[in-house]
User: Fold this.
Amino acid sequence: MVVLDLLAAIAAASVAGAALFLAHGRHGDDRGGPRAELVRYMGVAALAALACSVANVIEVAGGGTFAAAVGNATNVVTVGLAWAGARRLNGHRAIGTATTGAAGILMLGVTFVVPLDEATLLKTVGLVVFAVLAAVEFSRRPVRDLSGSRVLVGTLVVFGAFNLYRLVLSCLAGMSSALWQHTASTQITTILSALAIVGMGYGSVRLGRQLDDDPSPGTRAHDRRNLRLAADAVLGALERVHVTVIRIPELDLIRAAHSSGRADEMITVLVDAAHEALPGSSAGVPARDTVFVLHTGSTHVTEVEAAVRRVFAGQMPLIDYSDTPDLSFEHHAVTDVHDLSLLMESRRLRPGSGVVPRT
Assistant:
């Protein structure tokens, strides 16, 4: 029965970790900012919970002191990282990670030198302390003003209170008492831990959806954000913004014949050509091998294509390329930023597709 409970904890840790990483987005976007910080801390905490669950299964199967030590250490680290992540989101000094790591290492060593029951009690003390610290930190501004913070605080309070109850009960009645077996046994603790993991994962995802990304310059996520901001600025004065999507059909051949660096250089030159051909426009690469150009539509589409082709061809000698690749164009008009996001998303998921959302 205990093994089944531990397997449930493993499943909960896996779901929590997967949800956090999926909520963050693709690794290739190289996102930064508060949301990335949340995913980094809470995602690693979920992995630590997964490692703890696996170690506990091994311990039940006869893994001995080493499995118990790993389980105790990763259990403390799981809750400690929640506190460290909350401190990071609140803009406090980054001492949480170092403190959590030190506590985990200490717990790992202590388990080898004291009886397992005493090590379990010491681990429980660490869980109570970190749960209280994390609950307090998630209750502080600015994090407490975000949806999901109450779920996190409530989960941590219940988890901390249960572990405090285990400590008090062990002192008053002992770990071999009937009351301990019925209300604070390993089986009951594992069930509560699995529920706590689910609660923390759910609260973290809700919290993360309200946090901002701060993508690194030069990434596609950064270009998507800049294009959305540019579209919003244009739509403040006009009813619609015109979007020209440009691709180099033979770019894969260039990448295969030369290098990825050469292909990336071609895209960079194409962006520069679009800026030069359409002064005042905004251009970026929101999807792989795809350039988006936002402009007011004051220039006819045939003139837009001719101007971009002319400037692009003039740039080829500057990069020591003897030929001028052909360009393909698509022209759209969007009336709000959401339509632009859908258009960019269609190219991100299917960069070579000609199917786009209706705009």
